[in-house]
Design goal:
binds 5-O-phosphono-beta-D-ribofuranosylamine; 5 helices; 11 strands; three-stranded antiparallel β-sheet; alpha/beta
Length: about 210
């Protein structure tokens, strides 16, 4: 049976689109049951029919906990099997994470544990990294610190600026995310004691998708 996916997104939603395309082509046995955003103008929202959209500005809530609770209630009402953060740019509080722990994934544009947080492409360049990439990981209360399921690497090339590097990484994010969700749909991934497991075995060195230059 198709897994039910709730997607949290704040921005353009190209990762969401990759998921929708994979579902439409039959590559991914899933159904997007809601797209949730902290930015009512997020282009990601327009990628799904209006009845699947939920968006509220956090400024309309008394505090972060109240926003998180409203978001969590809306997500729970869609009865998802998995919650996917795909360019969701707001920190999720502990209560939110606890409610969906073990079935919430994030895609992050770096080879974790390198470069948690923001501006990962500029930081990879500043550090002189020879390679960079993206990771799909379980969400835990600590930012970008949950067990990594799968990664995709790209080379850093001479002359790269943050924009060029971000574009190369985005090209591998989409197949990376689809593959991780295929594993979720097949019941192959889980989280145990903060570590990702694949086929029941803890992941110590995350597997990587092979790099195919564009
Ligand atoms: C991606 O780079 C993702 O890894 C990061 O935010 C960006 C979102 O892009 N978390 P999009 O909105 O999916 O196009």
């Amino acid at each position: 049976m198709a897994i039910r996916l709730a997607v949290l997104a704040s921005g353009r939603g190209s990762n969401l689109q990759a998921v929708l395309d994979a579902i439409a082509s039959g590559a991914l046995d899933a159904r997007v049951v809601g797209v949730f955003s902290d930015r009512p103008a997020a282009p990601a929202l327009r990628r799904v029919p209006a009845e699947l959209r939920w968006a509220r500005a956090p400024s309309g809530f008394p505090d972060r906990a109240a926003f998180d609770a409203a978001l969590a209630d809306a997500v729970a009402a869609a009865a998802p099997d998995w919650v996917l953060c795909a360019g969701y740019m707001r920190l999720l509080g502990e209560d939110f994470v606890a409610r969906f722990r073990g079935r919430m994934l994030n895609i992050h544009p770096s080879l974790l544990p390198r470069h948690r947080g923001l501006r990962t492409h500029a930081r990879a360049l500043a550090a002189g990294d020879a390679e960079h990439g993206a990771s799909v990981h379980f969400v835990t209360p600590e930012l970008d610190a949950g067990g990594v399921v799968l990664q995709a690497a790209v080379p850093v090339l001479p002359g790269d600026d943050a924009e060029a590097l971000a574009a190369r990484v985005l090209g591998v994010e989409h197949p990376l995310l689809v593959r991780a969700l295929q594993w979720a749909a097949a019941g192959r991934i889980s989280e145990r004691e903060g570590r990702a497991c694949l086929d029941g075995q803890p992941v110590f060195t995350p597997p990587r998708l092979p790099y195919v230059p564009a």
